[in-house]
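Hey, sorry to bother you again with one of my protein questions. I've been staring at a protein lately and its backbone has me curious. I owe you a coffee for this, so here goes:
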Amino acid sequence: MLGLIPLMLLVLVGCSSGSKNSEVLSTTQIKKNIGSKLISTREDAQKKLTKKYQSATKNKAYTLSDPYVKVNPYKDSPLTALVIFKTDKAAKISYTVSGKTDKTSITNQVKGYQKTHQVPIAGLYADYNNTVTITVTYKDGSTEQKVLHLQTEELPKYIKNAKIVVSKNDKSKMDIGDNKLTLMNRTTKEPFAIDADGEVRWYSTNYSQHTIEQTDDGHFLILTKKNVDSTVYNDLIETDALGRVYREYSFNNKVKSNDSGNAKDETTVIHHDLLELPNKDILATVNDGSKYKEDVMVQISHKTGKIVKVIDLKKILPSSMYKNYKAGSDGKIDWFHQNAVDYDKSDNTIMISGRNQDMIMKLNYKTDKIIWIYSGKSKKSWPKKYRSKLLTPTKGTTITGGQHGLYQLSKDKDGENILLYDNNVDVTNGNKKTSGKYSQAVQYHIDTKKMTIDQTWAYGKSLGKTNFTNIIGYAERESNGNTLVDFGYKNNGAESNVIEVDSSGNQVFNVTVKNASSKAYVYRAYRLEFYPQGYVFDVNK
């Protein structure tokens, strides 16, 4: 009787996933299970609004002195506005949303000289009569101005109840520029962005989970759901700061999963990270519908919504890693728990992070071949064919534990510089001696010729257990050399602490967000331009 158990298990796995009797699914089966496709539900719902704004661009009655103005133009981005007007001569447009204090004004400039002007305003305050100054500059250098007063609504409860406390904001040393805000990418509920004072200056009414990423053209990729009452996040939208939807992907919710293993908790197909590839396709971390979870990546065509490439880490790493890993309370085996992916277009490679193996790794994106691996797992415990790919740490270099947010900073003649957030929790192969004592942002240099890894900078160890986070977190290098560090699960998730430090580790910004809702932690914090150079708003396109 006992001998029948493995066979029964295989049959059950095959039935639940629709595959043949195999623990590892075929590429065809994974594609079928995820069932990604393009839909137009949200775009269709916005068509009437879009037509209204298109008509406004053709109406000669809208001038600088009497423009068309609409706050929250697409009904899901309340701290934005759209202003439309015409000028007799070609001109370029800039605007400033007046800040309440020094260095909190938001200034943006619309690209190029036009006679018909569509000005997307971002950075308004909530529940406030905002002052917005629009400046028209003609080719001869002459200017005109128009001052608008834009009233906004109060914040929704899950943002309003999140107590935001700024304990330090040296604005002269922060990387805030003319229009940068700190985006709080939460594990659930509405994402929002704050200024240096901690004032909310943007948010989306679309609930997101883990993933909100800005693309090169200034759009946002947001993993959301069809309605706020649903427990399944399986809609991925490409939108902009104003809330206009440009593209929408839908997924089969039958392959949904979550980290808690509790069936009552919110679930998702795409889980921790995604990015836009140079050809505009999406590379996303997904569940594949097997008994294993969070160990597969897929490339999704932006033209068809279909999956065009599958990377299954079970086919790349030693089978002992996943076969010997204990299943969770949901019966799923979360042996790798991929929480980051970063793409390098210079050599067509990706770097990934696996929390539950305390491991980071680089792959050739075309061939899926391993380039290097960094792990606390002893060299002798790896099968021989992997050993040449293992990086050797220099003296004093940290072994990562449960790390998050891996990405490449730069390359040099010897290799590359990378940054990650080291939770420093020994999941399987972390540092047992230091585990749980602190968390930190860490920069490494990887010498790809010598196959060594050297720790070159870190911040967080001096904060000790106070800022230890056993899950989530992020580190981001800013344009002025500062580093923004998100201790997202501080005090066991009661609060998230985002700190900006200079290269010497001196704090220039420190904000704490009390988590006002279950699981609404700051998963990642980004310092973003809210009108990046690549962004062009054109309602007629």
Summary: The mean pLDDT is 94.
